[in-house]
Amino acid sequence: MRVGVLTGGGDCPGLNAVIRAIVRTGSAEDGYAFIGFRDGWRGPLEGDTITLDVQAVRGILPRGGTILGSSRTNPLAESASSGGRSGIERIRENLSVLGVDALIAIGGEDTLGVANRLYESGVNVVGVPKTIDNDLSATDYTFGFDTAVNIAMEAIDRLHTTAESHHRALIVEVMGRSAGWIALHAGIAGGANVILIPENPFDIGQVCGWVEHRFQTRYAPIVVVAEGAHPKTSDETVAAEQLDEFGHARLGGVGQMLAGEIERRTGKEARCAVLGHIQRGGTPTAFDRVLATRFGVHAIGAVRDGAFGMMVALRGTSIIRVPLADATSQLKLVPPERYAESEIFFG
Ligand code: F6P
Question: Is the pTM for the entire model greater than 0.90?
Fold first, then answer.
């Protein structure tokens, strides 16, 4: 059996741990051979591959990023572009030429959506969920999230001390396009005074009230805001109008907007720190390494059992299989009752 592996979408810590677990398990237990596809769906679309054997995955467990490379290439946007063949047809053809019997796609909502379409067209696909945003509904956690939260928490800890020295408000903008899980967890863990998430449009006047209250207690306020959060009166702040191949705009700027409004309305100095891709880089936490490794081991289990069209997922402490279609049908957003737990500490 020859198994192809690819990583698509935004990278995150733990991808290499999954790749290693897939190759080590499949080689040792099943005698499978592997082929790596470069840069997400671009690899199978263009037949761009790299050697993927036990030697190639030595030492990569703690490494951030992905040895396969990643991209936001969307084969579904390539309908009948090259010689009248759609992206899906081109991938099917390349997989057949390369003798690939099964494909493991590691990715988020967009990558797994393509994986599901490929499965529906007859390709043997297994999915592995990945995103620092932790917004895939079929799994309790995705690897990469815990690392991102810990990076953001450490940043908040550091910002507390400098904010207090200068009696400033510090706004921390974290990732989180549609779901505010990183902001929520990092904000709670870091003792933020206000946490703003995309699911709950905010009132700037109320945010300023919490900021002022915090100054009155002689502490400096820390406001954690997810990049996708927005005021009740307007949409998300977009950093670049151009959409990616999956139709997403690049978000960014809500933190700076808030800092300006807070200064204007409260008269107190406010600065913004944007964590951006720092949250996606570097070595994964122990939690993410373990989860990623388990996902890799169980992805090979799914290939072995012929459980195609399925994705591995974490339910409680168990790794289960769920249909790829379910995995991508709905985003997992922060429920109001979870957000309410954090609101107790605002102001
Ligand atoms: O989906 C993960 C994510 O990190 C989002 O939180 C963020 O909006 C997006 O990727 C950023 O993507 P890129 O690295 O392509 O700018």
Answer: yes
